[in-house]
Amino acid sequence: MSRSTYNMLVKYPDTNTNGIPVTGATASGNDVTVSFSASEYTNLQYVAGSVYIVPQAVWGVLSGDPATFTDINPIGSGPYEAGHLQRNRGRHAQGQPELLGWPVERRRRTPGGERG
């Protein structure tokens, strides 16, 4: 667990998408203690399994609310990027999968869409 991640949930409640009643977190060596305003022993799947642990070196230097942060230089957009989109169908163009070492496929069909 990451002390900084759970403290971010307290400081910016809109990042707490599971509604975990966390009140803070402390660390001593490799031990992290997370405090709650209510008993959470039955919600372990949310406390330990659904919170995205984020690195403090990256997220700790941001100014403002991380829920509204837009990364203008993302590491990757996945294997496909949105191409031509319509109401009920769309085409995805090749993204940059080679940066992640993934095989390259030129286009992908979406539900209701056409291949091409």
What is the gist of this entry?
Helix content is 15%, strand content 23%. It is α+β, with helices and mostly antiparallel strands.
List keywords for this structure.
2 domains; 5 strands; alpha+beta; 116 residues; 23% strand; two-stranded antiparallel sheet; 3 helices
User: What structural category do the secondary elements indicate?
Assistant: alpha+beta
Amount of beta strand = 15-25%
Principal-axis shape equals elongated
**Helical proportion, percent range:** 10-25%
Give the count of structural domains.
Answer: 2
| Biggest sheet, spatial arrangement of strands | 3-4-5
Compressed to H and E, one letter per element, the order equals HEEHHEEE
Count of extended strands: 5
Query: Stretches where pLDDT falls below 50 for ≥5 residues?
Result: none
Give a quick account of the main beta sheet: strands, pairing sense, barrel closure.
Answer: 3 strands, antiparallel
Distance between the termini: 45 Å
Overall pLDDT score = 75
Q: What is the count of DSSP helices, taking H or I runs of 4+ residues? A: 3
The gyration radius over C-alpha positions equals: 20 Å
Describe this structure in words.
The protein is an alpha+beta fold and 116 residues long. It has helices at residues 3-11, 44-47, 56-59, and strands at 22-28, 31-36, 80-85, 90-94, 107-109. It folds into two domains: 3-68, no CATH class; 71-106, no CATH class. It is 15% helix and 23% strand. The strands form two sheets. Strands 3-4-5 form a three-stranded antiparallel beta sheet, with no helix packed on it. The longest helix has 9 residues, at 3-11. The protein is elongated.
